[in-house]
Amino acid sequence: MATSDSWVQDSVTCDLCDNPTQQFCNSCQVSLCDTCVKKHREDFSSLSHDIVPFLDRKIQLVCPECKHHPGQRCKANCLQCSVPVCFKCVISGPHEKHNLEELTKTHEKRTQRIAVDTDKIKFELIPKYQGKNITYESSVSETHTHFVDLLNKSKKLRQLWHQEVDNIFDKIDSISQSHRKENLNVLHTYHNKIKKLIFEMNKIVEQNEKLLKSKNFSEVNKYNSKLKEFRDFLHNVDLKLPSFNSKIEQGKELSIEFGDYRAILNQMLQTSLFADFPPCISRIWEQIDKVRVTTTISTEYKPLLGVACVGEAEAWIFGENQTITRIDIHGIVKNTVTNRGKTGLSGISVTRERELMQCDRDRRTVNIVRNGMPEICFTTPEDWSPKRLCCSRSGEIFVHVCKFNIRAKYTNKIIRYQGQSIQQEICNDRHGNLIFKDGSDSLFITENNNEDICVSDTNANTVVVVDKWGRVQYSYDGISAKKKGLFHPRGIVTDVLSNIIVADINNECLHILDHNGLFLRCIDDCKLEKPFALSVDSDWRLWVGFSNSRKIRVIEYLKNE
Fold first, then answer.
1. pLDDT in the model for residue 33
2. Which terminal CB of the chain, N or C, has fewer other CB atoms within 10 Å?
3. How many C-beta atoms lie closer than 10 Å to residue 76's C-beta?
4. Structure-model confidence comparison of residues 482 and 97, the more confident one
5. What does pLDDT average to over the chain?
6. Cα dihedral 505, 466, 391, 311 sign
7. What pLDDT shows up at residue 262?
């Protein structure tokens, strides 16, 4: 019966052939059959070989042959040269007097290092890379899905934009067909009348020529002249031929005019004021049925007179104590700016570069805050004090200024500034009447996407909208909202849909109008106690400040696909 050792020996084959092993070279750590022992000695004839029966084998380190002394095995490692060396190399060779280390010890250190590296690779790096592999597999899928969604939205936007253009030209075609039909009807009617009169005149000429030859007094005496009738009929037909004009302002707008019909396509340029919002309109927004308060922020201001959002999660706010505070959506104070005087702070806004601007009513200055200090940007005209302001997307500044008049009231107007230069004054309509009512209360200002200037006239309790040339487009008095109390507008903003949102302090709600002034809805279910200040962040959430509390409510009322 075979022993376990003999069974192991039979199961191990010779390293040089496929026969069972009988011998073992301790020097080279090679299993050999009886036939291959001679071949092994001949292949490495320069070295000594310790051949023993396989069962008497000794597992040990295989020392390499010295490159400089054939027949000698290296037993040590030169620490200075980091190479294996034999006895002769040490006695009289190039490694004489070098520090040495037993080759077995060097081998042990190297195997320990290999074991450490192997464990780190096996138990640290491979799991980490496997995790990254899963993450990137997911990222590949998500990225693919993201760009598929972008492509679908791009196609949808392409359809919407093309539809808008088609609607414009369908309208033009409809108007053109209507005018064509109207003008052709006039021409056909006139033409038929002329042909009829020509026939009648030829008939009269024929009759008159007979009368000229007649000697019958009665027939001649019956003649009635129609010459005046024929002469009076000839006149030019009044045709309505509309002109067709188009205009392209690079980077601004495309406009087309067809008679009294005028259409404009605006190119909306996103500025750093809305840097968190994707360029163009990569998302399609719509109002949600159920609005919700996402956050309620506690502040130190009561009343809270102004809010100006910075990006998606911060805002500048101020009250009556001449300080302006920058807070985040959690109410944490980020910065504080103090007005130079004890009074005078009346309005704030944020530029497209996200810099704070403020009105100093007493000094008649509009300031920009840099390095925590107000710097004078410009001074308003003599006797005109700044109260509220709005920074436009194009970098211009709209400022509400007021002046004490001879009627012991304040006259109000809006000045458009480009840098320090006055570009426009908005105060009178085309009939010369005042656009804004006399009074000491503020005009809250915002700019819409179509460059309309939307004004909450708190003296007249009306929202007035003028175009970029200062021409009154429409006004809103709150009646269509059908609220019990009178409409008392305060803060005003516009959103990504070009809708106008205005705070109604008396009815404790927010009115939402479309860009044509049509009432859409009211937000009145968010505990809006005397809403006064209003701003919108880059995620199109409303920040509402109140006159009778220290709270700000952040309201979500839009969603995107």
1. 92
2. N
3. 22
4. 482
5. 85
6. positive
7. 63
